[in-house]
Amino acid sequence: MSEAESSSKGARYGDDPESTVDAQARVVQQKGLLDDVIDGIQLGLLVIAFICLVFAVVFGSSLPTVFPATQPVYDFVVGLPELVRAAPECVAELWAARPQSLAELEATQAALAVWLRDLLHWLPYKQCVLAFSWATYLWEAKLNIRQRRQLHEVRRPQAIASFISRQVYLEANAYGLDKSSLQLVKDAFGQVQTTLVIVYDAVPWLWAAVDAWAGLGGQHVIVQSVLFFAAASLVSTVLALPFDLYSTFVVEKRHGFNKQTVGLFFADLAKSLMLTMALGAPLVAGFLWVIERTGARFYLYAWALMAGVQLLLIVIYPTVIQPLFNKFEPLPAGELRTAIEALATRLQFPLAKLYMVDGSKRSSHSNAYVFGFFRAKRIVIYDTLIDQCTTDEIVAVVGHELGHWQKSHTVRMLAMAQVQILLIFFAFSCVINEPSMYASFGVAGTPVMLGFLFFQYLYEPLGSLLQFAMNVVSRINEFQADAFSQGLGYGEQLASCLIKLQIENKAAMNPDWLYSAYTYSHPPLV
């Protein structure tokens, strides 16, 4: 039965028990325990909101007297209209009081600095961290729930119906639902974990435990910080392990992607841990040493250190680190290699080496990328991409990647990242020596390692907004790279390959608009 016939009869997918497609549709449509829990929580919140509204109407201005805990909320709501009415006058006064000379500007800056120091002194840091953490979690959980509802949809958008079959669409949604279930549970577990760590001062406990175990007596802060970093990394890895195992050997395997054995999984895990320690320990030590030696303007030197480390990692990751996990071989001579080299010559791209990587060793997902600085550029193509696409389609994808190079997208994104890092370090410099922040989390003294960790909690909402901005820029870059490949004469081939990759990777083909706008670094199919 065609989709048009099904619609004309007023039927929905899942009505024909003999159809494989309709059986898949029933799986996608079915609401599980997690969906029931989500619906129950949302209904409960609506009921609570309704009860609060009824109480507000019934008790009116006597509400704070009957329920003293509601006083702050009542005062805010009652005062909100006056605040809105006074806003234009306040803005006008601020504009009139703006500095008119350099001396006034310096005085204003000094006054703001005093105000900021006072603010940072009495700020309830632990409560702010909990509030920011929960606000970020609830916002992202809401987005994930919106996306989950979209994944339960069984009818294809008209825009993709001509080239995406119903079976493919349903399989992608089933995969998306499994990933969504895991992500929602993982995020909830992580949020509860974060809350318990903050409320019960687990961070200073681990800090003291490391000091006692190493017998440092609080005398070697950098050594203690490195050991703390190692312990925290190990604990984090262990806590994440069940979710990683389930993702790899249940979700990915169920949908035909996982190629890893259990032995390979744990070998990769051991390598990752060793790399974390080998790279992270010197970085932590160097970061703390720079702060210790450079004084109030440490943020400039710390930023320079991080920029140098990032550039080094960009250089060594493809040539030193990734080969620890994958096998790189020169792309064999043939039609594909000839076509890519011809395109590189045409664009005057300084191609030094052309590799094929055995991505199929772990997964059937596919990719291609360009890396390297100056005249030592390299192109890497996954063997899965070669299996899934034709020569012209692969060349079109390479043309897209070369579009990023031609338009300096990688350099611009790296520059934006450096600005963000500098902003982080400067903001940290404002609280690094604030005793009230450390005391709020139960820490005696002002150990920089813990201060930076607590600051990251405070920075979380702003970090989310900056990541959203980076995603917006990334999507613009992707459209420009697509247009570049199209300008090379590979428009049809690129479209064909991107559709194939969407199908092979079972990516969401009709994502929720708000979810995709906030989280996607690449444009969705529709």
Could you explain how this protein is built, in words?
It is a single chain. This protein has 19 helices and 4 strands. With 526 residues, it is mostly helical. It has a 4-stranded mixed β-sheet, with helices on both faces. The two termini are 26 Å apart.
Brief overview, please?
The protein has 526 residues and is mostly helical.
What's the rounded overall pLDDT mean? Answer: 87
So how many helices? Answer: 19
Oligomer: single chain
What is the CA-CA span between the terminal residues? 26 Å
Low-confidence stretches: 1-17
Side by side, the strands of the main sheet go: 1-2-4-3
Give the topology string: H per helix, E per strand. Answer: HHHHHHHHHHHHEHEEEHHHHHH
Q: Nearest-angstrom radius of gyration?
A: 28 Å
Secondary structure class reads: mainly alpha
Largest sheet features:
4 strands, mixed
Helix content: over 70%
As a percent range, the share of strand residues is under 5%
Shape: globular
Number of beta-strand segments: 4
